[in-house]
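HOLO CASE FILE
Compound: C2E
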Amino acid sequence: MPMTLLSNDDTGHSNSQGSFIKEQRYQSLLSLHPDAVFEIDRDSRIVAVNQNFENLLGTCQKTVIGKRLQSLTVIEDLKHFPDALALALKGEQAKLECKILRDADQPTPIEITLSPSYVDGAVASVYGIAKDLVLYRSSVKSRVNEDSLTGLPSRSTFENRIRDTQYIGEQLAAVLIINLDDFGSVNRHLGHDIGDRLLQEAAKRINEGLQPGDFLARFAGDEFALLLPNIATEEIALQIAEGYLYLLSCPFVIDQHVLQITASIGIAFHHRPNPHTETLIQRACIAVTDAKTQGRNTWGWYSDDSDSVVLEHISLRRDLADAIEANRLVLHYQPLVDARTGVIRSLEALVRWQHSDRGLMSPQEFISLAEKTGQIIDIERWVLRRACKDIQALNSDREVPLSIAVNISSAHFGRNGFIEEIEHILQVSGLNPHHLELEVTESSLMTDTRKSVERLQALRSLGVRIAIDDFGTGYSNLAYLHRFPINKIKIDQAFIRNIDSNNANAAIVEGVITMAHRLDLEVVAEGIETADHRNHLVELNCDTLQGYLFSRALPFEQIEQLPAHLYDQTETY
Ligand code: C2E
Ligand code: CA
Ligand code: CA
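Model generated. Tokens follow.
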């Protein structure tokens, strides 16, 4: 019987498709886990167990769900459990040993590993894996096929595992071959001892990234193979591959050497139960060769299905990686003006891509794909650096300095180290933090509200300002939004477009402006294209305006040429 996982997502957030897939994957992999697995909530009550857990304890799930582990009479010697649980709730992995009294004469020694389970970046529960130590030790002894350097199973064990795994009907199986790039030069320059240590550390890192059900082996010198037996979509395997590329690219410290390596990953999928082992491995090997020829530190993928979304990703990923490297991203700046006087107050940085075949591409054509491939982070880092540098140069000649607004995606805002990154960019550019404004969307803040408040407070203490972009298209609850330390809201252009003819839009905009002012927030209206738009918003007391009436987004050199006033109010008002 598969594991029954009671829903613990009571955070009230809307569940994105991504987290739905993650949840499904989590559930199906846990149900297939070869060990006894249980999940406990923050109150240490059991919320789910799998079949192997029932077998190990000789009990059934009905009698254990809702109980605390310590209250189960069949388990003895749990004195280290509270400390281990506290560690896991803090986000660390913890191990303890205890005994099970299935057989009165002979208690069975058990090792329990507790691991935190995250929802939206916070520890929501803890899952435990219980191993019968007697069985485990005897199986380790019999594992003659193990690689002695890394302790990982060998190629033949991997092949058997592909054959023996139970595959679920609609799911996909994927094999990833992970090959370290230019590993030979480590051996040549630093010697085999360091090379061996590096392989051990790399194996450890990959191993730590495994999810229940995944199977990792060492194939050859610097080559590892990973089986993902049941995944819902190809996308998931690609994300996992991206994750491993990132993990392996972080520096390794071995003795006094700081070693930075990259890897290439080849992926092959199988769509039906009972994959043909040799074919699957062979295809993953072809794909890894392809990844190497693409320039390494990337993944390649084998399939004869040319329609797949994956192909599009491959070409975008490649082109975009080249564009970032070859400096083919371009920043344009659009002025934001004082509503009444038309004086420029700040600039919004808007990225474009100078594509060799397609010309100057609008962000609408590549930002959402870059969000999927994770490249948005590199793009936005570049935008932040460039924009802070440009505005700092511009301000050095100005009496009244301008602020710069930069768009930040939700993936970037939620990433660990984001605040430090902003601090670093400010330091390097020398820009006064008060002149940097980050535009985030409501949905970025709602993903993990507690963490968002912390981040916004940290940004505020740096002096950086925050604007909510595209206001009106998301949750749009101003009273709720006010709980976040923000400075500004930008009313989405959809509300402005026909504000003259649409009474409902006009009423919404008026309400938003009044309420925002009561909450001490500045209001910007975007998409001002006509004098009528402008006049209407001035009447409604809007503070700042942005739109083609004043200026389009322009290259930096043209911004320097703009007059201080972008709209002569005496003409029409
Ligand atoms: P956004 O942040 O809402 O930016 C405003 C968009 O409206 C810009 O389009 C701008 O050129 C356009 N716009 C400004 N005034 C008017 C007007 O009067 N009428 C009309 N019809 N449009 C106007 P753009 O430059 O194509 O950018 C589109 C979106 O791409 C941006 O929307 C933003 O969501 C995204 N984007 C741009 N740069 C970045 C970036 O560095 N990071 C992220 N995450 N997203 C970015
Ligand atoms: Ca924006
Ligand atoms: Ca906007």
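CASE NOTES: The pocket of calcium ion (ligand 3) is lined by residues 469-470, 490, 526 (CB under 6 Å). Confidence is low (pLDDT under 50) at residues 1-15.
CLOSED: yes
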